[in-house]
Specification:
The structure holds two protein chains of two kinds.
Chain A: E1 9-13, E2 25-31, E3 34-41, H1 49-53, H2 58-66, H3 73-88, H4 94-123, H5 127-147, E4 156-157, E5 160-161, H6 169-192, H7 195-201, H8 209-214, H9 220-223, H10 231-234, H11 255-279, E6 299-306, E7 311-318, E8 326-330, H12 332-337, H13 340-344, H14 349-359, H15 363-367
Antiparallel strand pairs in A: 1-2, 2-3, 4-5, 6-7, 7-8
Chain B: H1 2-5, H2 11-46, H3 62-72, H4 83-99, H5 118-126, H6 128-140, H7 143-174, H8 179-189, H9 198-211, H10 223-226, H11 236-260, H12 277-298, H13 304-332
Helix pairs in contact in B: 2-11, 2-12, 3-11, 4-6, 4-11, 6-7, 7-8, 7-9, 7-13, 9-13, 11-12
The chains are: A alpha+beta, B mainly alpha.
Chain lengths: ~375, ~325
């Protein structure tokens, strides 16, 4: 009998592939169905946001942040205005803060819902995607009423928000929170206990706490290793110190724990929205007194917030002009993606999409 | 009908034979057209959508339009493909799917070949389709196709065995491989085989889903991993042939399940016997088809290696246990 020779196969996954969530390209070296090596290639969606920002004044930068993490544009908006406000030392009106909190938390829920749907789509279940999108639709409609847009809101401004909430909006958000709390049990019923699903995710894509910290992972990717780190709790910005909420953590650091944590975070976000709706000020300004031309004092400023993906930061180097000399975003999708080659080493081909899906990346943010 | 089929082959009878074969073909093609429509409607219903509504009344012409589109598409053969094999593969996949229909009795009188080994014939011939998938995967010279093709081969081999084994219990109880005998035995016993053969029934359902490579066992063409598996490079009418084969097998498998485990054309209760057998057959058959679609809308996909483990480590031993217990019971009672 002759000897059977085997050959490693190089497979190009993406940039056009159904489950690389956009234009991520993975050059995968396969031995049968086992992955030997992965080379992620990014940059297909690079638009040079940071460079463009150098020629824009601070208000003009905001719409660009919509297009970074396009599933959580409100958080992107807040990220940049928060940095400029901190540099200016601006006092934000109470009402504006509450509007921001409500929109940001709703946005986090919307982002996690998309993640839930697409992750399960990767695993092969099609129905959850539509279930999640139905409920996300309600949130998008809320944002549509606020800003006139469904995805790229351009809603927040340095010093507050662009528009006040329409009459009855806050009450309807309150109703949605009650609805969503009940609805989540259906989510669990549809997926969480499914034996096939559990077999696909338990013990898949694990890493240690040290690895997570060394790679600079944040958000759920960090919390699933047992590190209790949430900027809303540990470095409260805006008015997060007024709300009561938990920071769910897990210790398994597998796809299943990340799945659980994201669903748990939806519950916590709902709690925050519920409290914010109850405390919502009856009247007041939704915009601070801001100079017509915004000129942060010369120097550096870095602020960070907890976005749906992890630590989203803005660094501004100002020379005291109306445009930043240098602007840099710390993009959690990009940082979290960096652990992927190590996670996929030696994994089965079918686990690739599960692991990639569990990281929750948005290519707009990875490539900025 | 059996006397009719036993007539000597003359010009007249030959024409009638050909005519009835064409009639069956038309029924099956009609089934495939509306099974796809039905699937989209059912899945849409589960997912709070409407499914097709625009083409024709209630969207009834949607599949017709889709097929027409596929037939009119440019015929693309990749430059590096193995041309003869690439052309042949859809046929290898598709011809057996029709060949197996010959043995299916729809009622006691409406059937074609009353074959003594009907059940065995069905399973043996349907196995050839895998060869078509594998050929197509290999000929297309595409990496996703090859992985899909390998998965198809592995899956078919692993699940063919529990599939046949799960039927052995029924064969033991009937003492025949003839599908009509199997149904008649169920009439004689007064209960359908899924009750005494509940274990075999469970194994058969799982293995048949794997044979059909439908959710949760659709790893062959796992869209999120392999784009479209062995069909990645196929388009136009060659792709249509693969799809056709797939849905004809849905027809075949639903019929076999109905016949072997759900009593075929038998009514559930004696007093309902006045309703013609074909109605019962169609009802049970439709239930099975709905069941496949229901699963598709509900379940995620299994992983290839877990699928193999399930096949070899769980289903195969269980089906052997089933045969053993059945044989024991038959011997002593």
């Amino acid at each position: 009998m002759g000897t059977v020779t085997t050959e490693e196969m190089m497979l190009n996954m993406g940039p056009q592939h159904p489950s690389t969530h956009g234009v991520l390209r993975l050059i995968v070296t396969l031995d049968g169905e086992t992955i030997k090596k992965v080379d992620p290639v990014i940059g297909y969606l690079h638009r040079g946001t940071e460079k463009l920002a150098e020629d824009l004044n601070y208000t003009q930068i905001i719409p660009y942040t919509d297009r970074m993490d396009y599933l959580a544009a409100m958080l992107g908006n807040y990220n940049v205005v928060h940095c400029v406000e901190t540099a200016l030392g601006l006092e934000i009106p109470e009402r504006a803060e509450y509007i921001r909190i409500i929109t940001m938390e709703l946005q986090r829920i919307a982002s996690h819902l998309v993640w839930w749907g697409t992750f399960l789509m990767d695993i092969g279940a099609t129905t959850p995607f539509l279930v999640a999108f139905r409920d996300r639709e309600t949130i998008l409609n809320f944002f549509n009423e606020l800003s006139g847009a469904r995805l790229t809101y351009n809603y927040m401004r340095v010093g507050g928000v662009k528009w006040d909430v329409p009459p009855g909006w806050v009450e309807r958000v309150g109703e949605f929170v009650q609805y969503m709390k009940k609805e989540l049990s259906n989510y669990h019923q549809l997926v969480s206990g499914n034996e096939i699903f559990l077999k696909r995710v338990i013990g898949v894509g694990t890493y240690t706490k040290e690895q997570a910290i060394n790679y600079g992972l944040t958000g759920v990717m960090l919390r699933c290793t047992g590190v209790k780190w949430d900027l809303r709790r540990d470095e409260p910005y805006s008015i997060y110190d007024r709300f009561e909420f938990d920071v769910p953590t897990a210790t398994e650091a597998d796809c299943h724990s990340r799945y659980r944590l994201r669903l748990e975070e939806i519950v916590q976000s709902l709690r925050i929205v519920e409290q914010a709706v109850a405390q919502f000020p009856k009247d007041g300004d939704f915009m601070a007194k801001v100079p017509r031309v915004i000129r942060p004092p010369a120097g550096e400023c870095y602020t960070r917030i907890e976005s749906s993906k992890g630590e989203l930061g803005t660094y501004i180097y100002s020379e005291g002009k109306d445009k930043p000399y240098r602007l840099k975003f710390r993009r959690p999708s990009f940082v979290n993606l960096s652990i992927l080659p190590e996670l996929l080493q030696g994994e089965n081909m079918a686990n690739t999409v599960a692991i990639l899906g569990s990281i929750d990346i948005v290519l707009g943010e990875v490539d900025a | 009908m059996s006397q009719f089929l036993a007539q000597p082959l003359g010009w007249g009878t030959g024409l009638i034979f050909a005519g009835s074969a064409v009639a069956l073909l038309a029924v099956v093609l009609g089934f495939v057209t509306y099974a796809i429509y039905f699937e989209r409607k059912v899945v849409g219903w589960v997912q709070f959508r409407h499914g097709p509504t625009r083409t024709g009344p209630l969207g009834l012409l949607q599949t017709v339009a889709d097929v027409l589109k596929l037939l009119l598409k440019e015929d693309i053969i990749p430059a590096l493909a193995d041309k003869p094999l690439f052309v042949l593969a859809p046929l290898i996949a598709f011809v057996p799917s029709f060949a197996v229909l010959a043995t299916l009795p729809f009622t006691e009188s409406i059937h074609f070949a009353d074959l003594g080994i009907g059940l065995l014939y069905y399973i043996a011939v349907s196995g050839i389709t895998t060869l078509g998938s594998l050929c197509g995967a290999w000929a297309a010279n595409n990496k996703y196709s090859i992985i899909g093709g390998m998965r198809a081969a592995a899956q078919m081999i692993s699940y063919e065995i529990p599939l046949i084994m799960s039927l052995v219990g029924v064969i033991l109880m009937t003492g025949s491989l003839n599908l009509i005998d199997i149904v008649n035995k169920q009439a004689e016993m007064g209960m359908w085989f899924f009750i005494p053969q509940i274990l075999g029934f469970g194994i058969f359902i799982i293995a048949s889903l794997a044979e059909l490579s439908r959710t949760p066992f659709d790893i062959v063409e796992a869209e999120s991993e392999l784009v479209a598996g062995h069909m990645t490079e196929y388009s136009g009418f060659r792709y249509a042939f693969f799809m056709l084969a797939e849905y004809v097998y849905v027809f075949g498998m639903a019929s076999i399940t109905t016949l072997v485990f759900l009593g075929g054309w038998l009514p559930p209760f004696e007093f309902l016997g006045f309703i013609p057998g074909i109605v019962w057959f169609i009802l049970k058959f439709c239930f099975m088809v709905f069941f496949y679609m229901w699963l598709r809308a509900t379940f995620p996909r299994m992983r290839a290696d877990q699928l193999m483990q399930l096949g070899w480590k769980v289903l195969l031993p269980l089906s052997l246990v089933n045969i053993f217990v059945t044989a024991l019971l038959k011997e002593f009672f």
